[in-house]
Specification:
- This protein is α/β, with parallel strands linked by helices.
- It contains 8 helices and 11 strands.
- The longest helix has 14 residues, at 164-177.
- It is globular.
- Bound molecules: cytidine-5'-triphosphate and magnesium ion.
- Cytidine-5'-triphosphate is lined by residues 6-13, 20, 50, 75-79, 82, 101-103, 206, 208.
Amino acid sequence: MHFLIPAAGSGTRMKAGKNKLLIDLEGESLIYWTLKSVFSASSTNWVGIIGQPKDKNLLLNSAKEFAQKVHWINGGDTRQQSVLNGLIALPKDAKKVLIHDGARCLINPELIDLCANQLDENEAVILATKVTDTIKIVDNEGFIKETPDRNYLWAAQTPQGFLVDRLKKAHKMAIDKNWKVTDDASLFEMLNWKVKIIEGTYSNIKITSPIDLKIAKLFVKNPS
Ligand code: CTP
Ligand code: MG
């Protein structure tokens, strides 16, 4: 399975003054933990890491164990552009790809393999969890408009897996139509292409704000 790891963000919400994937978690960088899980999955055989050129040495040095095994790809201004750069850089024979955010460093390797296997029967899959909060849709003035039925709400995570040709086509359509999305499954939805949900775990958080680092500490040496 081919793997693309978007790691080209700037971590604005983390307020660390650097790419949040360089932050230390229990003695190793966040990107180290992500790569450790990805390389522990038996389905993994090619890994591309998508980063800003200025972060290349920092990211690779912070995960030395994997530096020789990963393919470096320059990222773009948005996650969407970074993923597109990754797709273009895949080897020509790549049929399927799993996209996994560098910021989800607690992913369990078994869940990676589950996504990879499910891609045998589906054109697109994503890991997601049932939403436990009651979610409100709110207007610009800060008043509630409506409350969607929670039974239909899932929180999207990564990995997200796709047939490479399809995902490339979806990204090209997005450029033509000026669609802006924060995950790749969104493009499939907009095209009315099917995306299968695979139930994941609540521990697979995206490290976004400082509080997430405290939560990650509880899980990092014992992923579930
Ligand atoms: N990402 C990327 N290229 C970008 C922006 C984001 O590859 N231009 C990656 C991030 O490195 C991260 C993942 O996409 O692994 C999810 O993005 P997010 O959690 O939003 O990270 P940042 O964009 O770094 O954080 P922020 O939005 O707070 O600035
Ligand atoms: Mg971002």
